[in-house]
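hi! just following up on the protien thing from before. the input was this:
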Amino acid sequence: MKRRHQASPIHEKETIMRNVVLALPLLAALTPAAAMAHVTATPNQGVAGGYLRTTFAITHGCDGSATVAVRIRLPEDVIVARPQAKPGWSIEIRKEKLAAPVSAGHGRTSSERVAEIEWRGGRLDDAHYDEFGLSLKLPEGSDRKLWFAVTQICEKGSNEWTQIPPPDKAWNSVPFPAPFIILLPPPAPSGSEHKH
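and the predicted 3d structure came back as:
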């Protein structure tokens, strides 16, 4: 008859600590994957005052529940935006009146702005991802970020991607960061280069 070896309490603690230490690299490797689950804009840079086509990626549902609507609230200084049509989804564009008419590009003015765009009626399973596209006229004023508040509505629950981290913190330092677009300065005119 074989006798089973009984581990001492000290040996058990050492085994647990060794397992925790061995698991740390795995946890560190998983952290970037978790960060990728946030809603992001791609591309997330555009020239101030120019036009940009970008997409907002929804990469998972709400705790396993399928996404059935995506609402994007645009920054107040974005005047013109057009949503990309998606088969199976209806689109609602909500506008707001402006205090005074402003330039809307191509020599036109506008007395209202696109404030919010919502895609609804489709179904995006938790195991799949999709992108929701916008064509935007970016505002003037470079070297700053435009924050977009995104509400992901699911069959059960919702995710509010609206948090803006403090300036000295990383974008993903908050649980539900808002996606952003960085406004870049216009390129220098090619004729301004000094030639010898």
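The first strand starts at residue 40 and ends at 42.
The radius of gyration is 24 Å.
cheers
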